[in-house]
């Protein structure tokens, strides 16, 4: 398990569905060590603090193993070419990771990195901005159906994070699985 990329973005205006909205979903990889504070990655912003950010959703982690799925469905939807490689941060995540898929994570698990400690707090719930970022209208629905939601993390011990950092999974109470919580909350 390791961090493949650290990603961030500033909030900016975009036109989505014919209306102007503020968004910071377009995260891009940054080089070197980046500070992680109680409210997230240094230099990162969230546009809508009613659903993103805050102490319980300070950092968003997404498993890179799901990227092949998104490349395929984007190509099928005509939103990208078959050989187009999605850049790190394409899901709006702060941390692109390897080996930390949803079925392995439970609410309360801790992720020990060399210079900080993070805790799994909840799954990410997609919105219309995710559809726009993926380039097709059914992306959020595909996230719900696949369960490929990623996880929000709280910062237990601030510090820093870098691409290449190893991650040690420290099991929490193991009462609520991340993917199961996502599926229960997304049921109609």
Q: What is the subunit arrangement here?
A: single chain
Uncertain segments: none
- Give the overall form: globular
Portion in strands:
25-35%
Tally of discrete structural domains: 1
Mean pLDDT: 95
SSE run: EEEEEEEHEEEHHEEEH
Strand arrangement in the largest pleated sheet: 4-1-8-7-11-10-9-13
Supply the helix-strand structural class: alpha+beta
Explain how this protein is built:
This protein is α+β, with helices and mostly antiparallel strands and 188 residues long. The chain has a single domain, classed as M1 Pyruvate Kinase, Domain 3 (Beta Barrel). The strands form three sheets. An eight-stranded mixed beta sheet has the order 4-1-8-7-11-10-9-13. Strands 6-5-12 form a three-stranded antiparallel beta sheet, with no helix packed on it. It has a two-stranded antiparallel ribbon with strand order 2-3.
Task: Supply database-style keywords.
13 strands; 32% strand; globular; 4 helices; alpha+beta; 18% helix; single chain; three-stranded antiparallel β-sheet; eight-stranded mixed β-sheet; 188 residues; M1 Pyruvate Kinase, Domain 3
Please specify the SSE layout and strand pairing.
Blueprint: E1 2-8, E2 12-16, E3 19-23, E4 28-30, E5 34-37, E6 40-41, E7 59-63, H1 67-76, E8 95-98, E9 110-113, E10 116-123, H2 128-134, H3 139-146, E11 151-157, E12 159-161, E13 168-170, H4 178-186
Parallel strand pairs: 7-8
Antiparallel strand pairs: 1-4, 1-8, 2-3, 5-6, 5-12, 7-11, 9-10, 9-13, 10-11
């Amino acid at each position: 398990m390791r961090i493949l990329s650290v990603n961030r973005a500033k909030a900016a205006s975009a036109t989505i569905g014919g209306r102007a909205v503020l968004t910071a979903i377009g995260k891009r990889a940054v080089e070197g060590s980046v500070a992680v504070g109680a409210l997230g990655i240094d230099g990162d912003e969230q546009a809508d603090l009613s659903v993103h950010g805050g102490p319980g959703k300070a950092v968003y982690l997404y498993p890179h193993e799901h990227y092949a799925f998104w490349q395929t469905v984007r190509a099928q939807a005509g939103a990208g070419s078959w050989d187009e490689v999605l850049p790190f941060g394409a899901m709006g995540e702060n941390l692109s990771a390897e080996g930390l898929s949803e079925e392995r994570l439970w609410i309360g698990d801790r992720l020990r990195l060399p210079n900080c400690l993070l805790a799994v707090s909840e799954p990410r719930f997609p919105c219309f901005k995710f559809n726009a970022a993926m380039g097709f209208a059914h992306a959020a629905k595909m996230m719900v159906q696949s369960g490929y939601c990623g996880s929000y993390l709280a910062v237990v011990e601030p510090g820093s994070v870098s691409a290449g950092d190893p991650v040690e999974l420290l099991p929490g109470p193991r009462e609520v699985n991340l993917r199961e919580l996502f599926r229960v909350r997304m049921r109609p």
